[in-house]
Amino acid sequence: MIIDTTEVEVQVINSFSRWESLKEVYGLIGIFVPIFTLLLGITIGVLVIVWLEREISAAIQQRIGPEYAGPLGILQALADGTKLLFKEDPVPSRGDIRLFSMGPSIAVISVLLSYLVIPFGYRLILADLSIGVFLWISISSIAPIGLLMSGYGSNNKYSFLGGLRAAAQSISYEIPLTLCVLSISLLSNSLSTVDIVEAQSKYGFWGWNLWRQPIGFVVFLISSLAECERLPFDLPEAEEELVAGYQTEYSGIKYALFYLASYLNLLVSSLFITVLYLGGWNFSIPYISIPELFGINQMDGVFGTTIGIFITLAKAYLFLFIPIAARWTLPRMRMDQLLNLGWKFLLPISLGNLLLTTSSQLVSL
After folding, report:
1. Domain boundaries, position 323
2. Residue 95 contacts by C-beta under 8 Å, 6 or more apart in sequence?
3. Could you list the residue ranges that cross the membrane (predicted)?
4. Among the three residues 68, 86, 104, which one is the final residue of a domain in this structure?
């Protein structure tokens, strides 16, 4: 019996090539599935924030909130997004169309990239980088460029003034925020968000950076509200002064992108406060550890990962009550007051906090 070795070799080569192509396909699936899962979770999280803000705002003002679109009005945000998707999208006739169209996209993409370095649970992070917190700061500083492009491209003096205000406000409060993050990094001896959470977990509830950095926490909180342009820091879009700021000429899907970017930024700020100051996915009542309470040794596995995600999101959404309540509690500041608060008050305090942290770390060596 004679076997055609050439035919056998061809079959082997074909099967090997098919196996390699399948491995490439599975590799691409392994890359894109976590990304799309994160995007889906972020989208759902933003819808929840919009619903919570409307319900909490209605309760503070003693009025009825959304109640017709879905049970308890939970589909109201989805209905608004659908309406904006199909709404007319006009473009200013004498404006810069390229800048006008690119501005909302830059604002959204810069915020979305910040979610890459947020750990939602034990070993549940898309990119565990050694410079995670500084990557977030550098990426978030791109968003004001998109707002400035939108204001300039609108060919509207109110829009341009709103873009200038957004850039000035972001620069003013980015520096104190960065100094607070640097203080946390010195305490944790790392810039990785995972290492920062694990450094807090060594001492349980009392190891949270909230107790070790109370001044930095307050400065970070105020700077985050200013970065998210929430009251009392919503000067870039003050209605009585600028009509709607850099959003004046926008409608339809482009306006929806600005709306989405503001809530994405609010959520990412709450998650970073959870990671940097509130222990991340770890939650230990004094003398009682949550993992040991449920009979697990580490926060790994399906059950441990679920608990970690729940704890992280619970802390973030509990913190979100502060900016929502502040919207209906505090009056809007003037622009000069906003800049004075950032440069003359928060910057010296954050710098002094950094010097104190550095001194304490040197003494402890």
Report:
1. 96-364
2. 153, 154, 155, 156, 249
3. 25-52, 97-118, 124-149, 256-281, 301-326, 338-356
4. 86
Same structural domain, 308 and 170: yes
Q: Tell which of 86, 113, 139 closes a domain.
A: 86
The model's pTM is: 0.87
The answer for residues whose C-beta is within 8 angstroms of residue 117's C-beta and 6 or more apart is 125, 126, 127, 128, 129, 132, 133, 135, 136, 193
Whether residue 39 is found in the same domain as residue 168: no
Whether residue 234 sits in one domain with residue 130: yes
Which of 258, 239, 225 has its CA nearest to residue 338?
A: 225
One domain, residues 170 and 68: no
DSSP character string of 117-169 = G---BTTB-S---TTHHHHHHHHHTTHHHHHHHHHHHTT-HHHHHHHHHHHHH
Beta strands in the chain (DSSP E): 284-285, 288-289
- Close Cβ partners of 71 (under 8 Å, ≥ 6 residues apart): none
| Residue among 138, 135, 124 nearest 194 (CA) | 124
Q: To 10 degrees, the CA torsion angle through 148, 150, 152, 153?
A: 150
CA distances from 336 to 71, 231, 343 (A): 44, 15, 11
Cβ neighbours of residue 294 under 8 Å, at least 6 residues apart? 303, 307
Are residues 166 and 229 in contact, defined by beta-carbon separation less than 8 angstroms? yes
The count of domains in the chain is: 2
Under DSSP, the state recorded for 320 is T
Question: pLDDT (tens digit, 0 to 9) for every residue of the chain, 365 residues total?
Answer: 444 556 655 565 556 566 666 666 677 777 778 888 888 888 888 888 989 888 888 888 888 888 888 788 888 888 888 888 888 888 888 888 888 889 899 989 989 988 989 998 877 888 888 888 888 888 888 888 888 899 899 888 888 888 888 888 888 899 999 999 999 999 888 888 999 998 888 777 888 899 989 999 999 999 999 988 888 888 777 766 667 778 888 888 888 888 888 899 999 999 999 999 998 888 765 555 555 555 555 555 677 788 888 889 999 998 888 888 888 888 888 888 888 999 999 999 999 999 999 998 888 76
Report residue 60 as tokens. 């503070």
